[in-house]
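User: I'm curious whether this sequence folds into something compact or stays loose and floppy. Could you predict its structure so I can see for myself?
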Amino acid sequence: MYGRRVAGRTLTFGVSEWLEKNAQVLYDRETDGLWSHATGVCLAGPLRGKRLERFVAGTVTPRILWAAWRALYPTTRVLSVDGREDNASERYADYRRDPARVGLYPVANRDRRLPAKTLVVGVAPPGEDGVAYPLGLLNRRPLVTDRRNGTPLVVLLDNRSGATAVWKIPPDANTLTRNGNVLAGPDGRAWQAVTGRALGGGPDLVPVPHTRAYWFAWSAFHPRTRLVAAP
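Assistant: Here's the prediction. I'll summarize afterward.
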């Protein structure tokens, strides 16, 4: 999820007919610029080279059960498109099920460390090579701890909802353990695993922007990415 304000202007976006490395390219209606869906960088136009700001404020949950979200945020507004809030059909269901269908166009210089359509959680701050955590690994472990530029992180998957989360471990906590949907520090503090909300008072966990993607897509944009472990 990206913010729409760039260089003092608020932009509105649509989906162009172009692809970059099999990923959608967006356009903005104000300048006719083209923007990478995968990186948020403007590829062409007056704002070329500018980057959209990724939203990290509050909770960062690519997926979460509606009942769980509503319990946390009972006044949530729901996006309605053409009078509908959900879609009973899955347009890409056949594509998702077929491991041989990899993108719309051949993938150049495919990274063979993982099967192409292995799902990964990727973390890559601007200007860095990035790191990928296979969902198969997260499915087997309650959490995975790592370190980025000296900052300790915890990465996890909620098997029930499919939600993923990456949090900064508080400096004074050193490490976290997980029991179901609760993350606990050694001093007794606790947080909700998926949303990072503090339980019993204190600051919430700080989220780290991350992307859930197929391995072939992630590695195409981050060819020198570090792979934590094979699934």
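Summary: The chain has a mean pLDDT of 86. DSSP finds four helices and 18 strands in the chain.
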